[in-house]
Amino acid sequence: MVDPRWITFIIVLPCLVGVLDASAGDADPLYRDCVRECETTGCVRERCFTNCKFLLNGSSIDGPWYMQEPLFLHWRQWDCQSDCRYHCMVEREKERAAVNQGPVKYHGKWPFRRLYGFQEPVSVAFSALNLAMHFHGWLSFFILLHYKLPLKQDKQPYYDFTGLWHIYALLSMNSWFWSAVFHSRDVVLTERLDYSSAVALLGYSLILAILRSFNVRDEAGRVMVAAPLLAFITTHILYLNNYKMDYGWNMQVCVVMAVTQLVVWAVWAGVTHHPSRWKLWIVVVGGGLAMLLEIYDFPPYKGYVDAHALWHATTVPLTFIWWSFIRDDAEFRTSNLIKKVK
């Protein structure tokens, strides 16, 4: 079954987007001059930064080792260059707005305004909300299986896909967690964790789609389906993190897995007599419409809300419906299995 995050091509956004260094904003000579001057003087107009007393490698310019940049600033990468780029961008956008020019991208990203240190606060908030929705869905699924539905004599659920959905829930919450972190601050580490988590969830969702739609119940069959896909996914993640962060290749891999998964579930929803298949259709159609938000990529309103943030917002209700479908599936199959036992 397909996660709302993956049922459209938008699901591959973490796979598609690479942070570029040749956008219109950072190619602007006035912006470049501002950054160069800031890194030399430590100031943008009247605003000065204490961390510009340190070199970008963290060593002190005019003091001993114990005067080096604090570790928490170094970890968050709020170094002199980051602050200079951000505040020069803000000042340059003010100048462009004064002459009725629209915003442009800087280093591959729209000009977002920080809020309490968060780089893209609205996307962070909706990523966290999606994480909470998955946790709520997983918890309600667990309560349904172990406290509301009949159990076998060994106290195990009748539903034969229970363990697979538990793994799916953990991967989903992990992916949304790193999505929130990545939108908080885009650095190499957070980017790789977000990309890797997204690929892992996408690949596992494809495996789960095949197993559930074809009702693969025996362990040998599951291993035969999962093993080659898990090997490929693992190799792909290792390739991105240890050899080359190839955005183009990553895009192709993610698109193939997403489209394959979408086709599998579309066919299954069309031929099955599942009583709650309409919920699956809502998720599929809703996710397809949400894709328009990514096609129509617009600058962030007031520096905070862009198309990607709105896409994160649409996945919140879709996630609720999705977990409702999973619970319905557990009830439906449990009822059928009990009837067969009797």
UniProtKB/TrEMBL annotation:
<comment type="function">
    <text>Involved in the lipid remodeling steps of GPI-anchor maturation.</text>
</comment>
<protein>
    <recommendedName>
        <fullName>Post-GPI attachment to proteins factor 3</fullName>
    </recommendedName>
</protein>
<feature type="transmembrane region" description="Helical">
    <location>
        <begin position="223"/>
        <end position="241"/>
    </location>
</feature>
<keyword id="KW-0732">Signal</keyword>
<feature type="signal peptide">
    <location>
        <begin position="1"/>
        <end position="22"/>
    </location>
</feature>
<feature type="transmembrane region" description="Helical">
    <location>
        <begin position="247"/>
        <end position="268"/>
    </location>
</feature>
<dbReference type="GO" id="GO:0000139">
    <property type="term" value="C:Golgi membrane"/>
</dbReference>
<keyword id="KW-1133">Transmembrane helix</keyword>
<keyword id="KW-0472">Membrane</keyword>
<feature type="transmembrane region" description="Helical">
    <location>
        <begin position="124"/>
        <end position="146"/>
    </location>
</feature>
<feature type="transmembrane region" description="Helical">
    <location>
        <begin position="280"/>
        <end position="296"/>
    </location>
</feature>
<dbReference type="GO" id="GO:0005789">
    <property type="term" value="C:endoplasmic reticulum membrane"/>
</dbReference>
<feature type="transmembrane region" description="Helical">
    <location>
        <begin position="193"/>
        <end position="211"/>
    </location>
</feature>
<keyword id="KW-0337">GPI-anchor biosynthesis</keyword>
<keyword id="KW-0333">Golgi apparatus</keyword>
<dbReference type="InterPro" id="IPR007217">
    <property type="entry name" value="Per1-like"/>
</dbReference>
<dbReference type="Pfam" id="PF04080">
    <property type="entry name" value="Per1"/>
</dbReference>
<dbReference type="GO" id="GO:0006506">
    <property type="term" value="P:GPI anchor biosynthetic process"/>
</dbReference>
<keyword id="KW-0812">Transmembrane</keyword>
<feature type="transmembrane region" description="Helical">
    <location>
        <begin position="158"/>
        <end position="181"/>
    </location>
</feature>
<dbReference type="GO" id="GO:0016788">
    <property type="term" value="F:hydrolase activity, acting on ester bonds"/>
</dbReference>
<feature type="transmembrane region" description="Helical">
    <location>
        <begin position="308"/>
        <end position="326"/>
    </location>
</feature>
<comment type="similarity">
    <text>Belongs to the PGAP3 family.</text>
</comment>
